Amino acid sequence: MPYRVCFVCTGNICRSPMAESVFRARVAEAGLDGLVEVDSAGTDGWHEGDGADPRTVSVLRTNGYETGHAARRFRTDWFSRLDLVIALDAGHLRALRRLAPTPADAGKVRLLRSYDTTAGTGTGLDTGADLDVPDPYYGGMDGFEQCLEMVEAASLGLLASVREQVEGRAA
């Protein structure tokens, strides 16, 4: 059974699809295809069925990432099939933990940047400096580029943590 990771932001058109694309690439580079499944969703359903924001697509393509995406809303019943739910900011973290049907499910929710050793603790725990990935939606391309930089930096620590979990399952 694969290890399942879902990235969550508000509308599932900017930050979470970007994180999904970057992390899926890291999983493939690490040879973990088939062992780790990656997807994304939004806390709200405003954009369900829409593609990623064109600026997200542009930044991803420019940096060599895949870009196929359709927005969807996170559902409470998904907790039972997910191993890790990655929030892109503290508001998403709180919303997801409120949705969680059990304390164990709430424990699956982490902030993405908590895996970035330059931004936080690098442990996946929600402590340290401001760990939000700012919402680039209302700004220009520089916000999307900054978002990608934050996502890429955190993806390395997240991959190490996920690899450890996957290898632990195989042992």
Describe the model.
With 171 residues, the chain is of the alpha/beta class. The protein has a four-stranded parallel β-sheet. It is globular. The model has no long low-confidence stretch (mean pLDDT 93).
| Main beta-sheet annotation | 4 strands, parallel
Tell me the number of strands: 4
Query: Hey, roughly how much beta strand do the residues contain?
Result: 5-15%
**Uncertain segments:** none
Radius of gyration: 15 Å
- N to C succession of SSEs: EHEHEHHEH
How many helical elements? 5
Strand order of the largest sheet: 2-1-3-4
Give short descriptive properties of this protein.
5 helices; four-stranded parallel β-sheet; 171 residues; globular; 4 strands; alpha/beta; 12% strand
